[in-house]
TrEMBL record:
This is 3-dehydroquinate dehydratase. Pathway: Metabolic intermediate biosynthesis; chorismate biosynthesis; chorismate from D-erythrose 4-phosphate and phosphoenolpyruvate: step 3/7. HAMAP family: AroD. GO terms for molecular function: 3-dehydroquinate dehydratase activity. PANTHER family: 3-DEHYDROQUINATE DEHYDRATASE.
Amino acid sequence: MGIDFDSFTLAAATADLADADEPAAREHADAVEFRMDLTDDPLEALEDYDASLPIIATNRAAWEGGEWGGDDDERLAVLAEATAFDAVGAIDVELESILEGEAEAVLETARERGVSIIASSHDFEGTPPRGELVSTLTEAGKYADVAKLAVTAESKADTIALLSATEQLTYHGDRVATMAMGEVGRHTRAVAPVYGSRIGYAPVDPAEATAPGQYDLETLSRLIADLGGSAAETK
Ligand SMILES: O=C1C[C@@](O)(C(=O)O)C[C@@H](O)[C@@H]1O
């Protein structure tokens, strides 16, 4: 069953699926993001999975900030295999792979199996101008159920640009997930859902963050709840 992302989804991001059974995950997370690239035998881990949270499967390329060691064909083939597991409700595919024409098979397999698709783009260096944020999200949305963009904010203006792009796409009816990585933009992880962002990522244990600036799960859950952030209510 695909995750519908109709409302905000808080994902416990981890390399270790056992985290899905941790009290913090059971209490605060709506899904678990399994970073397949950060573990040795991800398909075996999926086979052993018996917790109740649905899984977002991500097999991040090294050229997109991940740690997958093999080539891209194999990386996407392993991701396609992950869609066979009932617990996998969504996959995350790099927009770059989609635009290069490398992801057709994995996207088709996911669609056939009713698994939702997140098309993602990351900028670990900075934040492109607002117009570019909008066009990247619009492009990603053509191929996926959720268009995701993670940037690195270097100024408050960067965070405003990201939130503004989030609001624009959401107002237009597109499903997006946005966040600014690093210290300057950290608060966007709590605030972006107010403007429509559909997915937030947080580790169960802050020492095991999967991206710079992440809050731990309990903290992010509380911040979002306090701010009343809910994707469906942005108009
Ligand atoms: O793409 C994302 C977002 C993320 O990079 C973040 O900034 O929280 C964390 C990653 O695990 C996830 O795949």
